[in-house]
UniProtKB/TrEMBL annotation:
Domain of life of the organism encoding this protein: Bacteria
Phylogenetic lineage: Bacteria, Pseudomonadati, Pseudomonadota, Alphaproteobacteria, Rhodospirillales
Source species: Azospirillum picis
Gene3D superfamilies (UniProt xref): AhpD-like
Protein name: AhpD family alkylhydroperoxidase
Pfam families: CMD (PF02627)
Residue span(s) of domain Carboxymuconolactone decarboxylase-like: 44-118
InterPro entries: AhpD-like (IPR029032), AhpD_core (IPR004675), CMD-like (IPR003779)
Length: 129
């Protein structure tokens, strides 16, 4: 049976602090259920949020590219929650239907060729070492 989300009003102070940081950082009125469920373990909530905030924050990769990578990995890992959450974030950042379609084509092709290379046990070319 899945854990129920911990709502802001029912959360301990340390959890509310993380929720407030998420809402401020993402400029959203509420946090996603993902955060509300992992809040059952406040240390995991805080650690995961701090890591995600750092990785997905400003860097050399464009924010849209980061979200699209997150979607691609989520598709490969079959995490429906993460696919929809990061697809929504990518669309807010400007991802078009055409870009989503191309992204899915790349994900599908990468998974296919990865499995073929693994199944055939293809050795790495000397020039790629």
């Amino acid at each position: 049976m899945p854990l129920l989300p911990i709502e802001q009003g029912d959360a301990a102070a340390e959890v509310r602090a993380v929720y407030d940081d998420i809402k401020t950082t993402r400029d959203v009125p509420d946090v996603n259920n993902f955060w509300k469920v992992i809040a059952h373990h406040p240390a995991t909530l805080k650690r995961t949020w701090e890591s995600l905030k750092e990785v997905m924050g400003p860097g050399t990769l464009d924010p849209l590219v980061k979200e699209m990578i997150f979607v691609a990995v989520s598709v490969t890992n079959n995490c429906q929650y993460c696919i929809r959450s990061h697809e929504a974030a990518a669309r807010r950042l400007g991802m078009t239907d055409a870009q989503f379609g191309e992204l899915m084509a790349v994900v599908g092709m990468a998974n296919e060729t990865n499995r073929l290379a693994t199944g055939y046990q293809v050795e790495l070319d000397e020039r790629l070492k």
